[in-house]
Amino acid sequence: MNLNTVRLMVSAVTPAQYPANRLPEIALAGRSNVGKSSLINRLLGRKALARVSASPGKTATINFYDIDGVFNLVDLPGYGFARVSKAEKARWGVMVHTYLSERQNLAQTLQLVDMRHKPSADDIVMFDWIKSNGFAPIVIATKKDKLKPSQREAAVHLIRETLDAEEVIPFSSEKGDGCDEVWEVIRRIVGGETLENSEISLSK
Ligand code: GTP
Ligand code: MG
After folding, report:
1. Which residues are CB-neighbours of 184 under 8 A, at least 6 positions away?
2. What is the per-residue DSSP string for 154-202?
């Protein structure tokens, strides 16, 4: 696949700022620090396309990436960080809720949860929010490399049970585990043929 033309199109807050293209869109949701930006960088084979933050809450806008002119990947701002004001939390809620409920392009949401922990109350709220907007989110369990192999099966089971999720993909941005599975999901959503022929469609 040709991933030469990957770029950040826009960092948006309001719908008026969303990109005007009609490409299918895949959004990433998850608490702050769960590894959304790291997953984007790993999937696209870029070191620093999406900013990875040591301090949580850095991504406070909705970031739209154009992937080969075939689909948009959307990094939603993270939730669950303690040290922000009530007003900021409310602003976050409006921003994400507006995106999920109004964005016509939205084709699927991937929800990232930390594989080391039981999904939090916030994770459950987010999962239900996404569901109520018409999608059963695909869950990606991040930081797989931080668990021992013997702990992994139980961790996935706990996540599946807690969220009542159909699909849980263990993932490591550090090692690359789960990359193929996530690409498989993306192909399923945007159409494999389109992706494989993206070079051709781009040069038209
Ligand atoms: P916000 O932008 O604040 O919402 O955070 P984020 O979800 O984008 O998380 P980010 O990708 O910035 O990662 C947060 C921290 O977790 C960074 O220090 C990453 O290096 C680390 N991290 C992310 N994914 C993995 C992983 O799979 N394995 C390991 N070991 N560390 C990871
Ligand atoms: Mg981020």
Report:
1. none
2. HHHHHHHHHHT-S-EEE--TTT-TTHHHHHHHHHHHH-HHHHHTHHHHH
Positions of the chain with pLDDT under 50:
197-204
Pocket test of ligand 1: the residue of 11, 53, 117 to mutate, having most ligand atoms within 8 Å of its CB, is 53
Residues 66 and 5 sit within 8 Å (Cβ to Cβ): yes
Rounded distance between C-alpha atoms, residue 183 and residue 160, angstroms: 20
Tens digit of pLDDT for each residue in 170-198? 999 999 999 999 999 999 998 865 555 44
- The mean of the pLDDT values for the chain is 86
Mutate to test the pocket of ligand 1, among 8, 32, 37, 171 (most ligand atoms within 8 A of CB): 37
3-state secondary structure (DSSP) of residue 60 = coil
Question: Which domains does the chain carry?
Answer: 12-196 (3.40.50.300)
Structure tokens belonging to residue 96:
């994400």
Identify the residue whose C-alpha is closest to ligand 1 atom 5: 33
Identify whether the C-beta of residue 104 lies closer than 8 Å to the C-beta of residue 15.
Answer: no
Any atom of ligand 1 within 6 Å of the Cβ of 146:
yes
- What's the whole-model pTM score? 0.89
pLDDT tens-place string over residues 2-31: 666 788 899 999 999 999 999 999 999 999
Q: Do 11 and 63 meet the contact criterion of CB atoms below 8 Å apart?
A: yes
